[in-house]
Design goal:
The complex is a heterodimer of chains A (206) and B (403).
Chain A lengths: L11 H15 L4 E4 L1 H6 L2 H6 L5 E9 L4 E11 L5 E8 L4 E9 L5 E5 L4 E3 L4 E4 L5 E7 L8 E8 L4 E9 L36
Chain B lengths: L7 H6 L1 H13 L16 H4 L19 E9 L5 H19 L20 E6 L1 H6 L30 E7 L2 H14 L4 E10 L48 E10 L1 H4 L4 H8 L36 H5 L10 E2 L2 E5 L8 E10 L2 H14 L7 E11 L11 H4 L2
Antiparallel strand pairs in B: 1-3, 1-4, 2-3, 5-8, 5-9, 6-8, 7-8
Helix pairs in contact in B: 4-6
The chains are: A mainly beta (206), B alpha+beta (403).
Chain lengths: 206, 403
């Protein structure tokens, strides 16, 4: 899959401006670094060290849903010199979001679990959040995420800096591993005890 | 010119010429040191792209690609202005990516998006879009079904539609993938009403600029206007209102051809029916395709060379030069019905600034008299408003929907 590179900048200030400009120009999507209120309020020196500045999110998107659970995806690239760890996520589309991965369970089936240590984006490398793999789990959606709507997702990194991502919603039939055995697009279940044991591995194209 | 100096675009454009040059270099006797000839990339046809962004949509003045699918869609009953905006945002992003060879978001077959092959997708609106958007005041007066013509044998399955996508590319796999993606991305907004697939000659099979032939064997589309000289025949001016700037209209008529009875006609009769030669497409009063027909010329018997019933005479009215439009048709050839030999015809797609003043008068004349009517039958008809294109930062239809 080809990708759009959204940043190629040398300083924090021009970088953030350029990203904002691209968002406006394309009317679309982009990762947008936010150094946090504290960092922004202090000085540029602090800002340039924020981990969020090293990350770029390409082609973010969210699976549209009426209610219940869904997920957000995209490629996250780290062009910095140090590893960056994403430790949590929030979204304006629901009260709860978690970082999830797929792992082999005791019975050998792939099951979805919340990652304990977050997502590590290696220095100079990238990770891909995609159906059947790592993803940002969005839970407790009560107001429909309509196809074409923009979902705001904020990723928090281990230095406290944050990355705002606009992930447009798309109709998508796959990624059903996120929903557990007794739920569907209209489900509104408590994620805490959901059973991922029956996820649909057809969604994993690998 | 150094090879390094060639950018990708000029490299692709020069591809056809380069093939000729390479053939000479290989087949000719070398007198001088061989001059390096840039070879087109082996996938030059597949990697060629058309610009998506602009005040006018692509796919109208774009040199016609080899394959087209016309997909008419109906809006679901709950689609309102807000939903239309979301739909157009989705399609704008999808079309921009597809036309540049990049997979759209959430594409389950992203590898199929890697061959743009000059893909264009042109979006048109039926009256229902204006109603759903609460913008009926902005709907052009001509945006309605064409009047009934006596030659029509319209079948509902090819008529009308709330929205149309004209999807064109030089690779049919590219077209199929784009249609599938655009339709499934829109499935909460629309249902498919009809789909018509058509084709022309493929790149490299005829010299660039060759006028297409239809399946009756005729050169078809000779008299297309030069939009560089007369853009107003197709386009609303760039300086028009936001709702109209860069817009046009699309008429899609499905014309069935009765090739069995056409076979009964000898070559002379075929040429008289149209008023043009079959080999060159030249008018019967001329020698070259683009010679202007002399409607007054008479033969030794005092009869007009171009007969009173000939298609070119009936289609033409030199006193009304505004009665012209851009033909961008495609042949179709479907599975025949049981007991029949073929089901062939023409997807007669035309673009014009105003359907009422440009298209309908010609159609009326042809309805009254045109010998070609003996072998051709309109079986489908639809009219659409084609909004202006998406400039940088805009979504398709934005200037209309936000008027």
């Amino acid at each position: 899959m080809s990708r759009t590179t959204l940043n190629n900048r040398t300083s924090t200030t021009s970088r953030s401006l350029a990203v904002v400009g691209l968002v406006a120009a394309a009317g679309l999507l982009a990762g947008c670094a936010d150094d946090g209120a504290d960092a922004a309020a202090s000085d540029a020196e602090t800002a340039t060290t924020a981990e969020a500045d090293a990350l770029t999110v390409t082609d973010p998107w969210t699976k549209a849903t009426d209610t219940g659970m869904t997920a957000a995806f995209g490629e996250i690239e780290n062009d910095g010199d140090a590893d960056v760890r994403i430790v949590s996520a929030t979204t304006d589309a629901s009260p709860t979001a978690e970082l999830h991965t797929m792992a082999e369970g005791e019975d050998g089936d792939m099951v979805m679990t919340e990652v304990e240590d977050g997502f590590l984006v290696p220095a100079g490398g990238s990770i891909t959040l995609e159906p059947g793999g790592d993803h940002v789990m969005i839970m407790g959606v009560t107001e429909a995420i309509e196809p074409g709507a923009n979902v705001n997702v904020t990723l928090t990194l281990d230095d406290g800096s944050t990355l705002d991502v606009v992930a447009p919603a798309r109709s998508y039939s796959g990624a059903n591993e996120s929903y557990g055995e007794d739920s569907g697009d209209d489900a509104d279940m408590d994620h805490g005890d959901m059973d991922h044991g029956d996820m649909d591995m057809d969604a994993d194209a690998s | 010119m150094s090879r390094e100096g060639l950018n990708r675009r000029s490299f692709l454009t020069g591809g056809a010429a380069a093939i000729g040059g390479a053939a000479l270099a290989l087949g000719g006797r070398a007198v001088w040191d061989e001059e390096p000839v840039p070879m087109p990339a082996p996938d030059a046809v597949g990697q060629a792209t058309e610009e998506f962004r602009g005040i006018r949509q692509a796919g109208v003045s774009t040199r016609p690609q080899a394959f087209a699918s016309f997909v008419a869609l109906d809006l679901r009953s709950d689609v309102d202005h807000d939903a239309l905006v979301r739909l157009m945002r989705i399609w704008t992003d999808d079309i921009e990516r597809l036309s540049q060879g990049r997979a759209p978001l959430a594409d389950t077959e992203p590898e199929l998006g890697a061959v743009p092959a000059r893909l264009t997708v042109t979006v048109g609106y039926g009256p229902a879009v204006f109603r759903a958007a609460g913008l009926e005041r902005l709907a052009p007066a001509w945006l309605r079904p064409l009047p009934a013509f006596t030659v029509d044998r319209l079948e509902d399955r090819w008529n009308d539609g709330d929205v149309i996508l004209q999807v064109c590319a030089d690779d049919e796999t590219t077209v199929a993938h784009a249609v599938r993606l655009l339709v499934k991305d829109a499935r909460t907004f629309v249902t498919v009403r009809w789909l018509q697939r058509g084709f022309r000659s493929t790149p490299g099979s005829t010299p660039p600029g060759t006028t297409m032939r239809n399946l009756m064997g005729q050169v078809d589309g000779t008299r297309n206007p030069d939009l560089g000289v007369e853009p107003g025949l197709v386009w609303q001016p760039d300086g028009a209102s936001d709702a109209l700037a860069g817009s046009t209209s699309l008429v899609v008529r499905r014309i069935a051809m009765n090739l069995d009875t056409w076979d009964e006609l000898d070559r002379d009769g075929r040429e008289k029916a149209v008023g043009r030669r079959l080999d060159t497409g030249a008018p019967l009063t001329g020698s070259k395709e683009h010679d202007v027909p002399d409607l007054d010329a008479v033969d030794a018997n005092g009869l007009t060379v171009i007969a009173p019933f000939a298609h070119v005479r009936r289609a033409r009215d030199d006193e009304h030069p505004e009665q012209r439009f851009l033909r961008r048709g495609y042949n179709y050839d479907e599975a025949p019905a049981p007991g029949e030999l073929s089901s062939s015809g023409l997807i007669f797609a035309t673009y014009q600034a105003d359907v009422d003043t440009q298209f309908i008068p010609i159609q009326r004349r042809l309805d009254e008299l045109d010998l070609l009517n003996e072998w051709t039958t309109p079986i489908g008809s639809a009219v659409f408003f084609v909004p202006g294109g998406a400039r940088a930062g805009e979504y398709l239809g934005q200037r209309l929907l936000e008027s």
